[in-house]
Amino acid sequence: MAAALSETELLALVDALADGEWHSGETLAAGFGITRAALSKRVERLREWAIEIESRQGLGYRLAAPLERLDADRLARAVPIRVDVAAVVDSTNSRLLSAAADDDPQALFAEMQTAGRGRRGRNWVSPFGANLYLSIAWTWAAWPPELSALSLAIGVAAARALAAHGIADVRLKWPNDLLIDDRKLGGILIEHRGEAGGSCRVVVGIGLNLSMAANQADAVTQAWINLDEARARHGLPPVGRNAFASALLRELHDMLQTFAIDGFSSVAAEWSRFDATRDARVRILNGENVLEGIARGVDASGALLIDADDGRHRIHAGEVSLRRA
After folding, report:
1. Which residues of 147-168 are buried (b: 16+ CB within 10 A; e: fewer)?
2. Known catalytic membership, residue 77
3. Mind listing the pLDDT tens digit for each residue in 138-150?
4. Where in the chain is the domain with CATH 3.30.930.10?
5. What is the mean pLDDT of residues 283-308?
6. Catalytic residue among 119, 160, 171, 241
7. If you ran DSSP here, which 8-state letter would residue 238 be given?
8. Which of 53, 169, 249, 315 is deepest in the core (most CB within 10 A)?
9. What does CATH list as the number for 277-324?
10. What are phi and psi of 270, to 5 degrees?
C-alpha cells in the first residue's frame, strides 16, 4: 500500500509553485526525487485544498496567482503572545476551544479550514492560502460587564486594520459582519466558556477574504468581496498576507487587552461611524418571528435599536438575523 502524502511534502510543492511562474514537471519531480506520476498525485492533492493549479503540455505547472504563505515567526513578532500557523485544520475556533487555557492568550492561523464555522452554524468557505482564518483565545479573571458587545468591539479593531491598509469604506453590520458596498468582506465568531462569578475564556474567530477567486467560492451563498479587489478600486496593489495579518493581530490583541477595563462604551462612537444599517429599514428574523423597522444604531451594551410601529425595541444578538428590508 502506498504511503499517504505528508503535509510537509505537500507544503514543499506549494512553496515551489508559490511564485506563480511556470515550473516544468520534470524539474519539479527531479527536485523532490520522485516520479512524474508521483508529482501528479501531489498536484491533485493540492487541488483538493482548493488551490488553483494550471497545467500545460510543454510548460508544466503554475499557480493561477502567486501565493504568500503565513510565517509564524513573523506573526509572533507582532504581539507578545503565542502564535501558531497550521496548514489545514477543521476550524481554528474549535482547535482553540479545546486547547489548554493555561496557554492563553494564544492565536492560531490556518491556511485552510475543512469545517470553518460562521455565526448561527453557517459554514465558512476556507480555501488554502486565499484568505485569513484566525482565532485568538483569551482568558479574563472575571466576566467583562459588556461581553455581549465584544463582537462589535472586535469589528472596530478589524476596521482599524483595514483603514491602515487603504480601506476606509468598510462598514460593520451588526453584530458581526464586515462589508464593502453591502458585499461581505469578513465575519466574526465569538465563543466563550466560564461560570458566573469566575473567570471568562473567549475564543474570537475572524475570517476575512483577501484574494479568493470566484471559482474557489462556489459554495458562498451571499454577495462577497475580497480585500485585493477593494484595494484595486483605490489604485492599490494586492495586500501582503503576512503584513496585513500582523496588523490585524495587533489590533485584536490591543482590543482584547483593554476590553475588560474599557468595555464597548470606549469604542461605541467609532462603531457608529462604521454602522452599515444606521437609519435604514431592516428586518429582524428570529425563528418564525419578524420585526421590521428603522435601525437606530446600538446602545451602550451593543444591543441593536429598532424603531418599529409599536415603539423602540432593543435586540440582542443571540440567534437573530438582521436583513435590509
Report:
1. bbbbbbbbbbbbbbbbeebbbe
2. no
3. 999 998 988 999 9
4. 72-273
5. 93
6. 119
7. P
8. 249
9. 2.30.30.100
10. -65, -40
Are residues 87 and 7 in contact, defined by beta-carbon separation less than 8 angstroms? yes
* C-beta separation of 282 from 325 below 8 A: yes
CATH code 2.60.40.10 for 7-63: no
Can you tell me the distance from the alpha carbon of 243 to that of 229, in angstroms, rounded to the nearest whole number? 17
Burial class (CB in 10 A: 0-12, 13-18, 19+), 237: exposed
| Residue labelled with grid coordinates 462577497 | 224
Region of 173 please: left (phi>0), alpha (psi -120 to 50) or beta.
beta
Which fold is adopted by the domain 72-273? BirA Bifunctional Protein; domain 2 (3.30.930)
Burial call 87-114: b when 16+ CB within 10 Å, e when fewer = bebebbbbbbbebebeebbbbbbbbbbe
141 vs 260: CA distance, rounded Å: 9
User: What are the start and end residues of each CATH 2.30.30.100 domain in the chain?
Assistant: 277-324
State the span(s) of the chain assigned CATH 1.10.10.10: 7-63
pLDDT mean over 255-269: 93
Q: Of these residues, 42, 160, 184, 241, which one is catalytic?
A: 184
Other C-beta atoms closer than 10 Å to the C-beta of 251 total 22
Per-residue pLDDT tens digits for 149-185 = 999 999 999 999 999 999 999 999 999 999 999 999 9
**Higher-scoring residue by pLDDT: 309, 117:** 309
For residue 41, indicate whether it is catalytic: no
Catalytic residue among 77, 193, 312, 323: 323
Look up 173 and say whether it is catalytic: no
